[in-house]
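Section handout, structural biology tutorial.
Before the tutorial, make sure you can parse a SMILES string by hand: atoms, branches in parentheses, ring closures as digits. In the record below the ligand is fe (ii) ion, and the chain has 624 residues. In the tutorial you will relate the predicted structure tokens back to the input. Do not try to memorize them.
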Amino acid sequence: MRCVVTLSARLAAAVLATSMLGVIAHAAETKLTLHGRVLAPSGKALPGARVHIYTAQPRTGIGAACPSCYPECAKSAVTDRAGRYTIPGLGDHLLYRVLFVAEGRVPEFRDRVDPLAGLLDQTLRVRDTTLAPGLRTLVGHVVDPQGQPVAGATVTPVGIHVGDGMMFGSVHEINARIDPVVVSDGNGEFRLTGPDSVRAWVLRVNARGLSPKAFPEVDAGPAGALLKLDTGNTVTGLLLRDGVPVPGAPICIDQVERDAMSYTRLDTVATDDRGRFTFVNVPAGQDYAFASVIGSLGPWALRTVLRTAGEDDSTTMLPPLQLERGFRLSGKIVLSARQSGRPDLRHAKRLVQPVVDNIMKNEYSIVGLTALKDHDEYTYAHCVNVSVLSIGIGQTLGLPRQVLADLGVAALLHDVGKIAVPGDVLRKPGKLTPDEWGVVRRHPIEGVRMMTRMPGITSLTLDTMRVCLEHHMNFDRTGYPEVAGDWGQSPLARIVAVADCFDAITAHRAYHARPRSAFEGLQYMLGPARVSFDPAALWGLVRTVGLYPAGTVVETDSHHVVLVLGPNPQDVVRPHVRVLVRPDGTAPPPDQPEEWNPMPRSRSVTRVIRPEEVTVDTAEQLAA
Ligand SMILES: [Fe+2]
Ligand SMILES: [Fe+2]
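Predicted structure of the complex:
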């Protein structure tokens, strides 16, 4: 796997390039009129429909006002008997987002509407209230702080609660039967449809002139939902260079807490002709970072400022922001497979490959590894990973070569019992039903059953059976299957259990918003999940993948930002690294990379830079 990483966190202040972007001053402007008709799909006129100017944006560049702060944004019209509407007094330098709403119809937005482009007709479909089996609709209302209905609010599901579990991300992509976004009508009412297995919704609501808000658990039941929005705080500031206001410079606001339950706000405005900038409807009481846009300030840079937004209906003044001389740094970081965050286990892979080949060809094919590959590609790939990782752990624990070979085979077959689990259950993104879970929990026993098909009994067959049976039993005996007496995990099963968990939680699966990084996987296994694992096997994992696995970006006490290339088995806190950014903000030239093999004793890691602070080019990653 190759991936391209562009550092955005600390570099954001340091990485600078081209010229100013700002767009503000506007000389004499012509006023335009937007008109058109609102129709049923049949072509029949819809009288009494409302047409709202929702937000606006400059034709080019970034506006100095928030998208809904232009005077035009208050304008709306009602269609006449012929379905016609007219909205006069629109500026010619703006493009508009227009909302169409009519009783009993699905509201629609039109983006980048240009009044110069002529008539704007819109059809509105009848809102279908009949439901397919297995679906149900949440009927809710969006209201303002006074309890008045809010029309045209967008309600976006960003997560679902199913059973005891929950899922974040674009839930529509996970389940196409979930509405991707719905809009409240003239009474503030919205209808959100999804599978009846959804117990509660995580909703994000945006409305013009009110602060965006996330609702972490909205009951999906028939009682309906009342979603109340606040006006939010106004945050304003001044941008200076050598004491002189800087007009036309883009400033970003970004919420510091990036939890999917509360993240709502990322925006950019340009400073006005007096160097001032204003963000309105900022959710109160949250912490925000204010920064410049990379490459927008020529040779100048702005240090990121953190500030908590004040109360609703009040204004927070930032201290004047001073530009400083910046550094210029460009280029991209390309991670090879060795540095992609997966452990470097080439040696172990060399050991496993012949094992895989043999098992595919000879007597073990009876057990069904080939069938497993056909049944579920992910489980097969997972088994190969677990085998490689188990051998790596076994090596660090000093197991003899013959035991390592047996461990590799046993680990490769640990999940072979999953052939007995239907593919759609294995691939199901949501929480499993109790019945489905019961089937999944049988896979250790099914694995043993398959191993009994092996002709004759060897110590390898017995080792593999035990690994199949015991890899989910857990060191503290909290797992499954439940066994009587003092039965515990065999030494090989303890190693496989550690490798199994690490691979599963760091794997790329379609329904993870993002997989845990290798570092986060270790944090979890060494933290809350620690009691489930044999301490020796866990330590073997740390030594194998490194405390800071390859691909982790860390900051040192010397203020270097460095990329971990690989573990240092002699000293897990000092991995092999490459310098990305020096303390003065410069980067080593690409033809003279600076590597510490390993990190010197005089330096130590002070901070792991979270994946959110590092922008990963996912398109590139997927294409690779
Ligand atoms: Fe398993
Ligand atoms: Fe597994």
